[in-house]
Write a structure and sequence with these properties.
five-stranded mixed beta sheet, 7 helices, alpha/beta, globular, 7 strands
Length: 201
C-alpha cells in the first residue's frame, strides 16, 4: 500500500529514501504492505541482533510507515520538542502515579494515528518469556497487533499479519508463534519460546 493510502503515521520522503538505500546496499528485500488501520501495536521479533532494527525499520520506512516511540515528557517540553514529535516521539510523564501501560493506552486514545513498536523479548539474548505489556496495551486500547520481522535466511524484512486480540492470551501468542517460528533470526540459538510466565496467564 503506497504511503498516501495508509492510515498509519507516514514517514517523510527522506526516511523512505533512507530505507530503500539501506535495503539496496545490503541486498535485502521488503515484503508485505501497510495495513489500513489508524492505530496498532507493532511487535518487532525475533530480536537477536542490533541489525534487526536496521532491517525492520528500513522495511517499514519503504512501506511508508513511521513508528512512534515514547520518551520522557521533559524532552518534548524542550526547544527540541517539535523535532522529536516530527520523528514520531510522544511524551510520557514518568513521574506520574499511573503505570506505563495506562499512560500508553491514554496516548492511543488521544492520538489520531499511532503505531507503537515494541520488542516483547526485551533483550537480544535468549529470553525465557515474553513481556506482556504489548498485549495489555492492545487489549485495553482495543487495537490490533501488527507483526514485523527480519528473516536472515531469505534476506527479507517486512510486515506480517495483523492480529485482533481475542482476550485469550495463550491462543493469540500461539498465532504469533506460528508466524514467527517460520522466520530465521540472525542468531537462532538466542531465540526463546514465545510464551509468558505461568503465573501471568
Amino acid at each position: 500500500m503506497p504511503p498516501s493510502q495508509t492510515h498509519l503515521p507516514y514517514c517523510t520522503p527522506l526516511q523512505t529514501r533512507i530505507g530503500k538505500t539501506v535495503l539496496r546496499l545490503t541486498g535485502w528485500k521488503v515484503e508485505g504492505e501497510a495495513p489500513a488501520v489508524n492505530k496498532c501495536v507493532a511487535v518487532f521479533a525475533p530480536h537477536t541482533s542490533n541489525w534487526d532494527f536496521i532491517y525492520m525499520l528500513a522495511a517499514v520506512y519503504v512501506l511508508g510507515i513511521r513508528p512512534n516511540w515514547f520518551g520522557k515528557q521533559e524532552l518534548f517540553d524542550s526547544a527540541l520538542g517539535p523535532v522529536f514529535r516530527r520523528l514520531g516521539g510522544i511524551g510520557i510523564d514518568r513521574s506520574a502515579k499511573r503505570n506505563r501501560v495506562q499512560q500508553t493506552v491514554e496516548a492511543f486514545r488521544q492520538e489520531e494515528r499511532i503505531i507503537l513498536g515494541i520488542t516483547p523479548e526485551g533483550t537480544r539474548s535468549r529470553a525465557t518469556y515474553w513481556k506482556t505489556g504489548f498485549y495489555n496495551i492492545a487489549t485495553q486500547a482495543q487495537i490490533p497487533i501488527l507483526l514485523i520481522y527480519a528473516d536472515y535466511a531469505r534476506k527479507c524484512a517486512g510486515v506480517g499479519p495483523l492480529i485482533e486480540p481475542t482476550g485469550d492470551l495463550e491462543a493469540d501468542l500461539q498465532t504469533m508463534a506460528d508466524f514467527f517460528n517460520q522466520v530465521t533470526p540472525k542468531f537462532p540459538e538466542e531465540v526463546g519460546p514465545i510464551t509468558i510466565r505461568p503465573q501471568t496467564i
